[in-house]
Amino acid sequence: MGIKSKDIERHKDRMTTTNKTIINFGPGPAKIPPEVLAKAQHELCNYANTGMSLMELSHRGKEFAALLQSVEQSLSDLLSLPDDYKVLLLHGGGVGQFSAVPLNLLGLKEGKTADYFVTGSWSALAAEEAKKYGGVNLVYPKRSNFTGIEEKSGWTLNSNASYLYYCDNETIHGVEFPFVPESSGVPIVCDMSSNFLSRPFDIKKFGVVFAGAQKNLGCAGLAVVIVRKDLIGHSLPHTPAIWDYGKQVAADSCINTPPMFNIYILSLVLNWVKENGGLEGMKSRNERKSTLIYDVVDQSQGFYTSPVCKTYRSMMNIPLHIEGKDGKPDTALEQLFLKEATRRGLLHLNGHRSVGGLRVSLYNAVTVEETQILVEFMKEFQRNNKGV
Questions:
Q1: N or C: which terminus of the chain has fewer CB atoms within 10 Å of its end residue's CB?
Q2: In terms of Cα–Cα distance, which of 131, 127, 105, 130 is closest to 118?
Q3: Of residues 31, 39, 86, 215, which has the active-site annotation?
Q4: Which of 63, 69, 53, 3 is nearest to 33 (CA)?
């Protein structure tokens, strides 16, 4: 990315006062590639030889217009994006799209209803938000525990739905779709916030794909939204302008000042993905990383347990428990695991507050080598505490 190796190494070796290398396994905000951080640091005070920081430039100026164009081109290259799709870069992160999607798409049909898969906390929240604007049909009844996806024989789809919504990867519960649901022609909307660009996918199967940036794309506060053009222009009358896809398309995502620095970081991350093998390269490294962790779990003879059915295990977010002698999670041992991991610089391995336990997040920027360090720690911890 045009940065000296010593600058990259400075960010690879982010050290603590105890002289330990820090590895961020957090679920988001997640690790950003060191090359991206080095480039951003280098250009922070002088973007594109303007003598100013990007954060000081006009969002109406030629420099930022060129940046927007470069982001759209990078996404087009990575996704083989057809001409009938439009990229939007919007405020509000992924949660903002929980409202934007129904506001823009429920009006596609008179019934103003939508089908929702509820496979975890985030899709559940999205379904609740959509109820404010129209009818919501749950494809199958909401479960008390999210450990997989109902067999197709248990689905109830509405042929008159305006769209079909699902979350491709549930960050909290670690459930990932291994397929794209069949919708019989109903436009498919997909929240890919926590696995966007982690592997190839066929954009032509979707009407809308969106992703919050703080997982695989950079800084929190930005959402990448990819919309098929025939779905634009059907917003409900009370849709705020900032959420109206048609108005944002007409304004090139600049109805108001967009999150400019976040978009800049996104542009660097997209270049990094392209330079590291594109989506096939990301898939290869992510499969290696997740296999390393799941192998430890499956070979631990029940010391580590994963609540998710194997068919639906996530490559990105791996929730775990340490099982006690009574067959229930040993919360004291899990806390010891987190304490020891933190002491070694392995950070943010705690499970979400709603489910507890442990969670390993393996976004694109986490390396195979860093994952192997965690694997060795997990094995050592089991050896030292198996009889506890």
A1: C
A2: 127
A3: 215
A4: 3
63-114 residue pLDDT tens: 999 999 999 999 999 999 999 999 999 999 999 999 999 999 999 999 999 9
3-state secondary structure of 228: strand
Q: Is 145's pLDDT higher than 80?
A: yes
For residue 3, name the pLDDT band (cuts at 50, 70, 90).
low
- Is pLDDT at 379 greater than 50 in this prediction? yes
Asked if residue 345 lies in contact with residue 20, where contact means CB atoms within 8 angstroms, the answer is yes
List of domains in the chain: 47-274 (3.40.640.10), 276-385 (3.90.1150.10)
- For the segment 166-190, the average pLDDT, to the nearest whole number, is 97
Q: In this predicted structure, what is the pLDDT of residue 16?
A: 47
Distance of CA 334 to the CA centre of its chain: 25
Question: Tokens 């938000």 appear where?
Answer: 129
> Which segments of the chain does DSSP mark as H helices, in order?
5-12, 34-43, 62-79, 93-105, 121-130, 245-250, 260-275, 278-298, 331-343, 368-385
Strands 164-167 and 188-191: parallel
Q: Is 191 a catalytic residue?
A: yes
* Adjacent-strand bridge partners of 358: 320, 350
Look at the alpha carbons of 195, 197, 199, 205 in this order and tell me if their dihedral is positive or negative.
Answer: positive
In this structure, the chain runs to a length of: 388
Q: Which residues pair with 169 in a beta bridge?
A: 176
Please give the span between the terminal C-alpha atoms of the chain, in angstroms, as a whole number.
49
Paired sense of beta strands 304-305 and 317-322, if any: antiparallel
Q: Which of 40, 65, 48, 54 is nearest to 253 (CA)?
A: 65
Question: Do 198 and 13 touch, CB atoms closer than 8 A?
Answer: no
Q: Is 247 a catalytic residue?
A: no
Q: Which two tokens stand for residue 210?
A: 């969106």
Which one of the listed residues 122, 244, 272, 289 is annotated catalytic? 122
Using alpha carbons, select from 328, 309, 323 the residue that is nearest to residue 382: 323
Work out the percent of the chain whose per-residue pLDDT is above 90: 91
Out of 115, 191, 244, 330, the active site residue is: 191
Given a cut of 70, whether residue 388 has pLDDT beyond it is no
Q: What are phi and psi of 190, to 5 degrees?
A: -130, 125
